Amino acid sequence: MLVGVCREVEEVLRRYDIFARYGGDEFTVLFPQTRMADALSVAERISQKVYGMKLSSIRNHPITISGGLTSLSGDHESIDSLLKAADKALYMAKKRGRGRIVARDR
User: Fold this and answer.
1) If you count DSSP H runs as helices and E runs as strands, how many of each does the chain have, helices first?
2) Which of 2, 17, 19, 34 sits a CA distance of 20 to 30 A from 70?
3) What pTM was computed for the model?
4) H/E element holding 19?
């Protein structure tokens, strides 16, 4: 399933976006020089693309993803603070229900 999700995600990403596995079933996408609204638009397209996947091994149940977005701003002193902000947004998305993307600046 992870390979299939990766293929779907890569079809949506722009040539300059960076997509990497972060751990287990978590991935990170970097949207260089992209406004939050535009990154959110790409993230929502990824979510829709993955939701449209059909895998017979899971009896054609829809696959959903949750995502957390943040932006590189003066508030982030390190890559760790940036990742923590994205992680907080991810957990907000999971708390609100499956298949959601939440964007937050801090």
Assistant:
1) 3, 4
2) 2
3) 0.83
4) strand 18-23
- Nearest residue to 64 via CA among 103, 31, 25: 25
Q: For the residues 54-79, what does the mean pLDDT come to?
A: 77
Spatial distance between the Cα atoms of 99 and 91, rounded to a whole number of angstroms: 12
Can you state the percent helix, strand and coil of the chain, rounding each to 5? 45, 15, 40
Residues 87, 74 contacting (CB under 8 angstroms): no
Judged against a pLDDT cut of 70, whether residue 48 lies above it is answered with yes
Classified as helix, coil or strand, 24 is coil
Q: Any idea how long the chain is?
A: 106
The answer to whether 31 touches 39, Cβ cutoff 8 Å, is yes
